[in-house]
Design a protein that fits this description.
496 residues; alpha+beta; Jelly Rolls; six-stranded mixed sheet; 8 helices; globular
């Protein structure tokens, strides 16, 4: 009897697998489903690590969803419910949604708590013949270094408490400058934000306490996960960096003190100092006052930042009065001398790339208004990508800048509702725009200014000064119907 020929096993490339994971991880499908997102990221890490066993319900509840160690699967069905929802989300996303053309589909087979990758043209690469165990992915053709880089997206530290973290410094040498993004106080998992940026678990810290608060509501951002953990107390970070010039961004949102908080209080409840390489960089910082309010996110920007002689950037958080200092997230990116990096935002849920290749992030740090997708062709548009969505209503942007610098603000708008069939011939909108209390636009009608609907109009304002807290607060106030904006750009004109 002739033996059946051995057929070569299909292998999913690291590029296709990483694209499938990133496609879903940064998509709208998971954006407002935090429990499903946490489960997906936890299972994706296990998939990348080649873990053979299906995850246990208790483990998923405690390690992925942050439930108390006393969690009882017999009385709490959260894992079963959310896994069923995640299974449906994956099926919809890769069958009829944005992932339908992906060469790799991801799914959760019935009866197991595990993720599997399926090549479009063939059978599942991960076998589900044995339950609960799953066979490892066939990664034979994938370079180990590349696999390690992808696995780092979902790095999951297992420390039960918060001892000092001292990873080895990178070896100096040629190459691009470092980029570091840290979720302070998060010892469980990283995530990909709405702009596609990878945030890693807490590291490089000394002192302080890691605190989680997954249920906190942050009212002015799309990525509340940046603010669901924090490190607090008197503590410091020692971040290894390649020699060079960097921009440092620190993210904060107060949820313990303020109006409606169980602890009460508000302004002056936490006041602290920030030091860089041993020198005072900012004091006093009162997040409730600067944000302003409880549950309102903000970021502070520091320019001309470089590592000390030991190759590390030392960031200190010192208590002034009366409670602990804290930080939610830390971002270090290659910077410019004496200039803040351009801030470009489009009023959309996803980033946009303009005709010059610049990336515009989804608008954030904004209170009020609502986004609406638009699809009309725009006459005179510098880039159609900037006009596929708009924010309209009564809203305020808090653009975080640097004190002592002047800025240029560029706004792009196009009327895509009034002036078209189905609306009144006399209907239009007009609004005022204020920046830190000064009038920039008054009774502004974008359709009138552009010469008709579906036409782009740009307004530019130079010499803007941040307020005493280092913020440029833009208030869009309706006069008739609602204010609108499609995209905005903030450019640093340099120190005064």
């Amino acid at each position: 009897m002739q033996a059946e020929p051995v057929r070569p096993r299909k292998v999913i490339s690291i590029e296709d697998l990483s694209a499938a994971v990133a496609l879903l991880n940064g998509s709208e499908a998971l954006r407002r489903k935090p429990n499903q997102a946490l489960l997906f990221q936890y299972l994706a890490k296990r998939l990348l690590d080649g873990v053979a066993e299906t995850a246990k319900e208790y483990t998923l509840a405690v390690e992925a969803l942050g439930r108390d160690p006393g969690f009882d699967p017999k009385t709490d069905s959260i894992v079963r419910v959310e896994m069923r929802k995640l299974r449906q989300t994956l099926d919809e996303f890769f069958e009829d949604g944005p992932g339908k053309d992906s060469p790799v589909a991801l799914r959760v087979p019935k009866g197991v708590y595990a993720l599997e990758a399926v090549p479009r043209a063939g059978a599942p690469l991960v076998s589900t013949a044995r339950k609960p165990p799953l066979h490892r992915l066939a990664f034979a053709a994938i370079p180990l270094a590349a696999l390690a880089m992808l696995a780092a997206w979902f790095l999951n530290l297992s420390e039960p408490s918060s001892p000092p973290s001292r990873p080895a410094s990178p070896q100096p040498g040629a190459g691009p400058l470092s980029t570091v993004r840290i979720l302070a106080g998060n010892l469980a998992e990283g995530f990909t934000d709405s702009s596609g940026r990878q945030w890693e678990t807490d590291r490089y810290f000394e002192g302080g306490i890691a605190t989680q608060q997954r249920a906190v509501q942050i009212v002015n951002v799309d990525d509340p996960r940046l603010f669901q953990s924090l490190r607090e107390g008197a503590f410091s970070y020692h971040i290894p960096l390649k020699p060079g010039l960097y921009e440092l961004r620190l993210y904060f949102a107060e949820w313990l003190y303020g109006q409606g908080a169980s602890a009460g209080g508000g302004e002056t409840s936490r006041v602290f100092r920030i030091t860089l390489n041993g020198r005072t960089a900012y004091e006093p910082l009162d997040v409730v006052a600067e944000a302003p309010g409880r549950g309102v996110a903000m970021r502070k920007v520091f320019l001309n930042v470089s590592p000390a002689t030991d190759g590390k950037l030392h960031i200190g958080f010192e208590i002034l009065r009366p409670d602990k200092a804290f930080v939610n997230a830390i971002e270090v990116v290659p910077g410019l001398k004496d200039r803040m990096l351009p801030l470009r935002m489009v009023a959309a849920a996803h980033p946009a790339i303009d005709n010059q290749g610049n990336q515009w992030e989804p608008d954030t740090f904004v209170l009020g208004g609502r986004r609406e997708s638009r699809s009309r062709p725009i006459v005179g548009a510098p880039s159609e990508a900037l006009f596929r969505s708009e924010r309209f209503g009564h809203f305020t942007y808090h653009l975080h800048a640097v004190r002592g610098h002047r800025y240029r603000l560029n706004l792009w708008m196009a009327e895509q509702y009034f002036g078209f069939p189905g609306t009144s011939a006399t209907a239009h909108r007009s609004f005022d725009l204020w920046a830190n209390g000064s009038t920039l636009l008054q009774d502004f009608d974008p359709m009138r200014e552009a010469g008709g609907p579906g036409r782009a109009v740009r307004r530019s304002f130079g010499g803007l000064r941040p307020d005493a807290y280092g913020a440029i607060r833009l208030q869009f106030v309706p006069v008739r119907n609602y204010a609108l904006v499609n995209a905005l750009e903030l450019l640093d004109e340099g120190p005064e």
